[in-house]
Design a protein that fits this description.
Layout (H helix, E strand, L loop, with lengths): L3 E4 L10 H12 L8 H17 L9 H15 L6 H13 L5 H9 L4 E5 L3 H10 L6 E4 H4 L7 H9 L7 E5 L2 H10 L3 E5 L14 E3 L6 H4 L1
Parallel strand pairs: 1-2, 1-4, 2-3, 4-5, 5-6
Helix pairs in contact: 1-2, 2-3, 3-4
Length: 223
């Protein structure tokens, strides 16, 4: 049915960094005299990250590591914390290079025969380290650094279609993010499968082509 499958990596094939984000927020909370919560710190950090992320494309492109350090420095300064942004960022960077593979991802990757193309917002060096760490092998990969922009912007999807001579109708994109993956792929005219392992509530205005709790559910489509 499909000539290729575009695969998000973090949150789709390997675990996200949620546990480490919470650890960092806790360290900021315990190193400030301000009354706050882990949740408030996390929200402020995410907003700071998002602002940098959304404006990072073309001549203004910054790597994911640069955006992370910048947004964390902003958060630490806002909360008057004594923590060091580069030191805390290393907690995330270590995870990015050595994430744990989801069990269903292992089966999925072994059994599908459709050509696999990784589309990732993470810096190329980090994702290559993560792929090697998990004993995986992908011949085809496009990262944010290759196109100087991030999903959900169209450049990464367009680059993948052009590079591998594919029409949007010939591809299925698989990802866990409703904004970066679902919205981004659909804007590019690509059908998308949303992996929802944690039973998140789907907003009424978002309609993925497929919704699955396990990647193994997609094997019949791509085998």
């Amino acid at each position: 049915m499909y000539k290729a499958v575009f695969l998000d990596f973090y949150g789709t094939l390997v675990h996200e960094d949620d546990v480490f984000v919470e650890e960092i927020c806790h360290r900021i909370m315990t190193s400030t005299s301000l009354q706050t919560t882990i949740r408030d710190i996390g929200n402020y950090w995410w907003n700071a990250f998002s602002q940098n992320f959304q404006s990072s494309y073309g001549d203004n492109f910054k790597t994911q590591r640069e955006i992370e350090i910048c947004s964390l420095a902003d958060t630490i300064a806002f909360y008057k914390s004594s923590e060091n942004p580069r030191e805390l960022s290393e907690i995330l960077f270590k995870h990015w290079q050595c994430p744990q593979l989801f069990e269903d991802a292992k089966t999925f990757l072994e059994r599908i025969r459709t050509p696999k193309i990784i589309l990732s917002n993470i810096d190329r060096h980090d994702i290559q380290s993560a792929i090697h760490h998990n004993g995986l092998s992908f011949e085809n990969m496009i990262t944010s650094e290759d196109v100087k922009s991030y999903k959900p912007r169209p450049e990464m999807f367009q680059k993948a279609l052009m590079t591998y001579n594919l029409h949007p109708s010939e591809v299925l994109h698989v990802g866990d993010s409703l904004t970066s993956d679902v919205a981004g792929a659909q804007r590019a005219g690509i059908k998308v499968a949303w992996i929802n392992r944690s039973n998140k509530v789907l907003p009424q205005n978002v309609i993925p082509d497929y919704i699955v709790k396990s990647l193994e559910e997609l094997i019949p489509l791509l085998a």
